[in-house]
Amino acid sequence: AQSVTQLDSQVPVFEEAPVELRCNYSSSVSVYLFWYVQYPNQGLQLLLKYLSGSTLVKGINGFEAEFNKSQTSFHLRKPSVHISDTAEYFCAVSEGNTGFQKLVFGTGTRLLVSP
Amino acid sequence: KAGVTQTPRYLIKTRGQQVTLSCSPISGHRSVSWYQQTPGQGLQFLFEYFSETQRNKGNFPGRFSGRQFSNSRSEMNVSTLELGDSALYLCASSTQGIWTDTQYFGPGTRLTVL
After folding, report:
1. B54-64, pLDDT tens digit by residue?
2. Does A90 touch chain B (CB under 8 A)?
3. CA A2, CA A91: separation in Å to the nearest integer?
4. pLDDT tens per residue across span A36-73
5. Eight-class DSSP state of B26
6. Would you say A40 and A48 are in contact if contact means Cβ atoms under 8 Å apart?
7. How far is A108 from chain B, CA to nearest CA, in Å?
8. DSSP string, B39-93
9. Which of A22, A47, B85, B110 could bridge A59 with an S-S bond, Cβ 3.0-4.6 Å?
């Protein structure tokens, strides 16, 4: 069965500093990988996704992620964060060849950006 | 283009009651998925409907059910409510599904069971 581990429940960082949010997945088949962001009292918004092709995926708001099959990881990075990036970030996986288009989410990482 | 709308936004029920939540997808979207978000269990997939048919289902008891209408609007029903059903219920829509296009989420319905 597929699963997602987000190693850090909370990541504090200063404004304009780089950040990396870690995500590891477990699956016996090919996977599709996603990062979503949730701002307070709002639904989720897709940041980026990996389906196939280049392992470096660029998303919205300056975020990018790299798919590493050997390490089963899909870490999210941003070179310089803003106060407005303060939010909860969720990594998710969907198994690619089962026909089941459902997402399995990690427990989330709260990014706290301070001035 | 209007986003995904969910009604009501907040709901308070008592144990044993039933509840129906509504989701109106973005115009032209045929896939609607439902998720439950709780502090303890996180985000969990409930089910997905595509063109009025349930295409995928998560691991929830039969008290949780849903349906989709011909206009793609979807409803989710929970019968015999339990305290543990208190959660934020999120609806998301996409044109065909999460593999082919972007899934857009609504703001959620916060259900409190007393």
Report:
1. 988 889 999 99
2. yes
3. 13
4. 999 988 889 999 999 888 899 999 999 999 999 999 99
5. P
6. no
7. 8
8. TTTEEEEEEEEETTEEEEE-S--TTEEEEE-TTS-EEEEE-S--GGG-EEEEEEE
9. A47
